[in-house]
Design goal:
Elements: H1 2-10, E1 18-21, H2 25-32, E2 38-41, H3 49-59, E3 66-69, H4 79-91, E4 96-101, E5 104-105, E6 109-112, H5 116-120, H6 129-134, E7 139-143, H7 156-170
Parallel strand pairs: 1-2, 4-7
Antiparallel strand pairs: 3-6, 4-5, 4-6
Length: 171
């Protein structure tokens, strides 16, 4: 799952991929060891997703203008979807880009790093959603017409469901 997500990121227009590890860190490090990525250890991963976002942003190149936040449990988001989001973000004038499918928000989210300090100061209990609530006029919604942006695998049964789908599609 992590390998597929990382490979999709590497196949996109992204200049730098930072992979944040925490839970099962050594296993993840091992499967991505040959990929050209920056690995960032999040010692506070048990605090939730925002701690990983903060860790990734703190390890991003200081020259970075924006961060694309992708989730490892969404390996079916292909590079083309990411590239479309990147292109629309770069051609627009908004600081936050969120892909949508049938009105539902998804990933990957792109955030202008003019918000870097604000993100680093967000409360772990509130999360990154607070940034969106604080800047609703600075959000670009991108309808991508693809449901993958809203699907993830939080539980083992989700993973098994996706494997079954893949097997059906390969037949």
């Amino acid at each position: 799952m992590v390998e597929a997500a990382v490979d999709n990121l590497l196949g996109s227009k992204i200049d730098e991929v930072v992979v944040v590890i925490g839970h099962r860190a050594e296993e993840v490090r091992e499967v991505i060891k040959d990929r050209p990525v920056v690995v960032a250890m999040n010692k506070d991963y048990q605090l939730g997703m925002l701690s990983s976002v903060k860790c990734g942003i703190s390890h991003a190149s200081k020259e970075s203008d924006a961060a694309l936040i992708a989730l490892a449990d969404q390996p079916f988001i292909e590079s083309g979807i990411m590239n479309r989001a990147i292109d629309e973000f770069l051609s627009g004038d908004k600081g936050i880009a969120i892909p949508t499918y049938e009105g539902r928000r998804g990933h990957p989210v792109i955030i202008d790093l003019k918000y870097r300090d604000e993100i680093m100061g967000l409360d772990e209990n509130v999360g990154l959603r607070q940034l969106m609530l604080d800047h609703p006029d600075d959000i670009l919604y991108i309808e991508v017409g693809r449901g993958e942006i809203t699907r993830d695998m939080d539980y083992p049964e989700d993973y098994q469901r996706e494997l079954k789908k893949m097997k059906r599609n390969d037949s």
